[in-house]
């Protein structure tokens, strides 16, 4: 399916459609437990359930039980639902404003059920071995708590307990090894941008500005590439005690650091934020598939990489709305977000009749690459990964943020 919409897209409605599609295709209860929600990590379209093995497989997929466990994918699912909940709030937070119809749960309510599902599926705890995973959930539950406060919904005590537990983990992960920063995992042998960026942003948003600035200072001193204007992946200690830098550049690493720079503010941080937007435009874009559309953000495949570009778009949208940044920087950030979102929207395909085992009226599948149609990357019958669909949803939500009242 391609879009022939008017010249002024309704990004709010497009974001609702993305939310409806992902929740319809991937959303499940956990073990049929009431008040729980979880996403299956794959959706297999067009695969009939033959025989008792097929029926057992369908049952297991339907309860989100036997799926591989990807904690941080679920955390980003919470964040996407909070995006949708904020749009519901902007429309009055009435049942009629709910993204999936007045008879279904609000996005905030569904996100709260999802946090419950994550804790249960993660062996009755929100702690795991990776500090970046936990940071994504901490950021999402913080935003969910703010949404609950504005809508006067319950669950804030649970959200606070989650954050207290995770904050203790982050505090323990920060050491003077390698000059500062927090570790990536409990192996405590690598400090990287994927952990330090979201932890710094979480500290900044929860009032721990000194801790947040210390992490940003460490990132700037250790992992910022002044030529590229981008943050490198990470650092570890060599056998002689020297600092060895892993120089790979990932799209998503730039996003949370950009968010932390904006949250902290100040001339130095804002100047660095503008440089990051410049580096993203110069080095992390590819040509759009539609002639004349210009460039879109590059995407990084399936698996964990399927989330990367969506995460970057979330924080580019914040840069585009930040009046403290130069106008040219804001225009660049907005163009990257809306151009990439438009490419995902243009490249979507409709779920065909009979392709989904459950109800999925008018649901869409989005491509894993913004510059390639979904009909090529996810043809009918292909296994579709949750990460890639969250990526498109996040990107479309970012575009919706730019056009919000």
UniProtKB/TrEMBL annotation:
Keyword Hydrolase: yes
Domain of life: Bacteria
GO MF annotation: an example: hydrolase activity
GO biological process: carbohydrate metabolic process
Keywords annotated in UniProt: Hydrolase
Keyword Hydrolase carried by entry: yes
Protein name: Glycosyl hydrolase
Source organism of this protein record: Pseudarthrobacter chlorophenolicus (strain ATCC 700700 / DSM 12829 / CIP 107037 / JCM 12360 / KCTC 9906 / NCIMB 13794 / A6)
